[in-house]
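Write out this protein's structure.
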Amino acid sequence: MRSYSLNPKFLSEERIPLKSSIRTGRPLLVGTHLESNGIYACRLDLATGALGEAEIAADAPRPGFLALHPQRPWVYAITAEPRQPNGGVRAWRIAPGDDLLSPLNQQPTGDMGATHLAINPGGTMLLIAHYGGGSTALVPLAPDGALKPVISLVKHVGASAHPTRQTEPHAHGVAIDGGGRFFFIADLGTDEVIVYQIAGGGQLERVSAWKARSGSGPRHLAFHPNGKWLYLINELTSTVSVLAFDSRAGVLSDLQTVTTLPHDFRGEKTAGEIVIHPSGQFVYGSNRGHDSTAVFAVDADRGTLTLVEIEPTGGGHPRSIGVDPTGNFLIAANRDSDNLVSFRIDATTGGLAPTGFETRVPRPVCVVFPTLGASGE
């Protein structure tokens, strides 16, 4: 595995408030598995791939996965509230100055083990998956970005082949189609991707379900920019399933399943995150255990994948990866080695080249890239 070193010159530069840092670098927000001081911020130099020193952006208990509002400067995080038996979700406004995130409010999510979230394209509601409780919740957003109480909670049912991980439902990842009509939940415990829509009274109504190969363990989902293909990373088999999406009926169908690991790998299979390049030409999947990112080229006509390479992430347990909105850099969030590592993306092949830059963040598990400019208020 390659080794990486910090760039002392870059890290010693005076920090720049999040909102004005667009002049010299792209801001990142990082969710972590920390009980306090849980969200960090740093910046990415878009010329070199250098990562600035990370600073605390918000105090939150185990914020984990983050979601950015599509139009306004608001960010939301799943949290583990110490005085709440069920899951929690918090909202902040992204603001300039030393306090990079200004709290809006917090709400319970209605079930145990909230693990992942997504915002609809209209920016009016959150979809939340509960791994522990095996359910999906819908949380409306107020006009000022604040969280309203849960309006719909649907319990999943079923089990699958794995003797310890699939004895009951474990909703793990959520996604929403570009039209905002259909809601998708990857359930690791039941080997399903369940499709919902909103019925009367704002309630989630099941439309269909796609069944993965037994023992796959569906984890996270990502839509292709054209809206026709949905890419699913399966945790327990370290594979990516390519699914065709019928936007009229809300039905998924199988196109292909490919491995994210070398064929001679004999360790534990535990895939992490899936990300699509902004161009739609490439798909990236992280491998925990193998500590790598699998790079795939997308067939422009069929949506199917061809493996380009498998690149080490420069750390342990890459729970998340993220591609900056310019499409030039991929950031690997290595939880067990407490670091973010940057890679330059080849615009032709999608391949990853280490930049040699990293920065320390304790227990990073999610990376998102806020949009800068007008406040949106």
